[in-house]
């Protein structure tokens, strides 16, 4: 059985990303996946690394998040990109949990990047209007940094991405098309 962890990287719990995550979850559950969810903005932790050369102990919320990440065989991140950047707390979450060495690991032999090996991931990013225009020009939105510099560096592979342009309404055909696609992605997640 596959274990799916949905990471909610949005600053709010209301919005189109909730509908997208729900569709992905329903698709995964139809094929028997076990699903857990994690709302990053609800976690209490210092999003700034205190010392660049020293290990900072993980707060209880980050230790619980790390357990869920280790449990998962597939991780999917839903986040909104505003003004071509992700929320600062989401960035801090990656800095604290996905950058070597992995702090807070009880077993020193399990420390390091190998704790993420064998997992796959998907990044679903919804871009605001300004970021969507920039993406159309450069094809290099912020999620490439998450994909290459965070997840793939931690040996999570493959990492798939979806970029959804500015969504004006949850009821339009464009949004409904993406909800259907995300349900299908959930049914065949790796």
Give structural attributes.
5-stranded parallel sheet; 37% helix; alpha/beta
Could you outline the blueprint of secondary structure elements for this entry?
Elements: E1 3-8, H1 16-30, E2 34-39, H2 60-71, E3 74-81, H3 88-97, E4 120-127, H4 129-138, H5 143-151, E5 159-164, H6 173-187
Parallel strand pairs: 1-2, 1-3, 3-4, 4-5
Short characterization:
37% of the residues lie in helices and 18% in strands.
Overview of the molecule:
- With 190 residues, the chain is an alpha/beta fold.
- The chain contains six helices and five strands; from the N terminus they run E-H-E-H-E-H-E-H-H-E-H.
- It has helices at 16-30, 60-71, 88-97, 129-138, 143-151, 173-187, and strands at residues 3-8, 34-39, 74-81, 120-127, 159-164.
- A five-stranded parallel sheet has the order 2-1-3-4-5, sandwiched between helices.
- Helix 1 packs parallel to helix 6.
- It is globular.
- Residues 106-111 have low confidence and may be disordered.
């Amino acid at each position: 059985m596959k274990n799916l962890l949905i990471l909610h990287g949005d600053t709010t719990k209301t919005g189109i990303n909730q509908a997208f995550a729900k569709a992905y979850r329903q698709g995964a559950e139809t094929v028997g996946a076990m699903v857990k969810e994690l709302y990053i903005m609800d976690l209490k932790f210092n999003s700034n690394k205190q010392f660049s050369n020293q290990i900072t102990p993980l707060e209880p919320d980050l230790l619980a998040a790390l357990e869920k990440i280790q449990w998962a065989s597939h991780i999917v991140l839903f986040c909104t990109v505003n003004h071509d950047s992700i929320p600062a707390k989401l960035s801090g979450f990656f800095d604290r949990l996905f950058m070597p060495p992995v702090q807070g690991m009880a077993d020193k032999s399990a420390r390091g990047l190998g704790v993420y090996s064998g997992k796959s991931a998907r990044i679903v990013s919804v871009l605001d209007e300004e970021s969507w225009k920039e993406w159309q020009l450069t094809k290099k939105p912020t999620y490439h940094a998450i994909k290459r510099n965070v997840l793939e560096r931690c040996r999570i592979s493959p990492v798939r991405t979806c970029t959804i342009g500015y969504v004006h309404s949850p009821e339009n055909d464009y949004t409904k098309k993406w909800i259907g696609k995300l349900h299908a992605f959930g049914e065949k997640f790796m």
